[in-house]
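Inverse folding, one chain.
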């Protein structure tokens, strides 16, 4: 999954011949999972039609302060557009528009959006080689860079004038990959190895039966997806669940039993920076697994159970610099029980869910958690979708590891 997935991207198109490439840009951004809106300078409409860009972006294209074709003359709110965007990309960016951006000129909608934008701004210059080399252009770049805008340098090649030199807008693929890399660089879990366990474990009784539980794995998978989107290098050790992850950055290790989960987790732990154990691991397993299907008889059947290894506690013993997080699912004396698990298993953080809370626990799409840190800070949250709970847990961990 691209880091651009789910991002709201505003593409600014200005009047250069490279404007025809903005159609490819929109396609690539949409393909990467971004929502795209386009704002054009009035003259750029002569190079590429708003219809092309609105069809590809599946959104209305904006190029003036009011929509003149609309008899109610609807106001295109530049502030709203600017605040909507997670990222503003101006490509192609002509010398004229760049100079106006550097000096605060605001004589079209695109420039008004630029002045209102609080999000990161990227610009891909496109102009003839002598314009590109001109000291004024150089001064413009310096000013824009000093404002915190990011330049995606033009490349060397044949220009619309027929001359050959530097000034061609970077190719759409190169622009998208530049932005992806740049966004990844700034992510808080960049360079961190994150180990996550999720789902239930199944403990075999015989070849067809097992002892298991109702864990869906949704919480662990949500944490894995979120950690990857924050730049983490994620290994997800998952018990049997019906979920899938489409994120290629997540390394998925599928296991069935507690013993398999234990071995897989131990294999990765040394290299791990953050371990979050959300799996609902069976505490007991049949002491003996029948090699053939057990036939029913007229008498009672007793299965002797033996304890499984406590994976979390074993990591707590091994822990060096790793930040170790456990979950506690409680039905009574919640805070007390969770705090004692935190201590006993040598954790940095425990995520408590109480089965008494509506919207918390197994199966559903929501959860209600309280975070308890090893210095006894407790942080309760409201009922939220598990995807948001994942964000809360990771935001807390990121704050802690950066302290
Ligand atoms: N856990 C584990 N290995 C086990 C059992 C539990 O790694 N064999 C982890 C879970 O992934 C979770 C935490 O321990 O992060 C708490 O699990 P829980 O079952 O609530 O606690 P237990 O210590 O097993 O205590 P009890 O079942 O008695 O409440």
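Residues assigned per position:
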């Amino acid at each position: 999954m691209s880091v651009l997935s789910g991002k709201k991207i505003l593409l600014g198109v200005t009047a250069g011949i490279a404007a025809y490439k903005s159609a490819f840009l929109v396609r690539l951004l949409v393909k990467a999972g971004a929502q795209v809106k386009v704002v054009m300078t009035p003259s750029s409409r002569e190079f590429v039609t708003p219809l092309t860009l609105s069809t590809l972006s599946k959104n209305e294209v904006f190029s003036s302060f009011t929509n003149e074709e609309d008899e109610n003359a609807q106001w295109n709110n530049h502030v709203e557009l600017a605040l909507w965007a997670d990222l503003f990309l101006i490509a192609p960016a002509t010398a004229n528009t760049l100079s106006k951006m550097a000096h605060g000129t605001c004589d079209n909608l695109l420039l008004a959006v630029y002045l209102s934008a609080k999000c990161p701004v990227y610009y891909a210059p496109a102009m003839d080689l002598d314009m590109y080399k001109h000291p004024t252009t150089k001064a413009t770049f310096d000013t824009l860079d000093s404002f915190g805008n990011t330049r995606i340098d033009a490349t060397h090649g044949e220009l619309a004038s027929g001359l050959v030199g530097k000034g061609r807008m970077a190719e759409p693929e190169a622009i998208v990959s530049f932005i992806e890399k740049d966004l990844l660089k700034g992510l808080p879990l960049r360079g961190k190895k994150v180990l996550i366990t999720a789902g239930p474990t199944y403990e075999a009784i015989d070849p067809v039966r097992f002892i298991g539980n109702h864990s869906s794995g949704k919480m662990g998978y949500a944490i894995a997806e979120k950690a990857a989107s924050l730049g983490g290098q994620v290994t997800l050790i998952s018990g049997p669940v019906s979920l899938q992850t489409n994120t290629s950055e997540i390394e998925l290790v599928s296991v069935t039993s507690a013993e398999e989960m234990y071995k897989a987790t131990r294999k990765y732990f040394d290299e791990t920076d953050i371990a979050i154990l959300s799996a609902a691991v069976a505490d007991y397993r049949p002491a003996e697994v029948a090699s053939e299907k057990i036939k029913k008889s007229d008498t009672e059947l007793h299965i002797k159970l033996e304890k499984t290894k406590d994976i979390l506690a074993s990591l707590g013993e091994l822990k060096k610099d790793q930040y170790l997080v456990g979950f506690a699912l409680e039905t009574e004396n919640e805070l007390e029980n969770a705090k004692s698990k935190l201590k006993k298993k040598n954790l940095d953080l425990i995520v408590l869910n109480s089965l008494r809370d509506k919207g918390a626990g197994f199966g559903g799409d929501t959860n209600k958690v309280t975070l308890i840190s090893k210095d006894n800070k407790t942080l309760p949250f409201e009922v939220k979708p598990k995807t948001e709970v994942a964000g809360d847990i990771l935001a807390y961990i990121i704050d802690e590891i950066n302290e």
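Residues 386-401 form the longest helix (16 residues). The domain at 193-291+302-401 is CATH 3.40.50.10300 (Rossmann fold).
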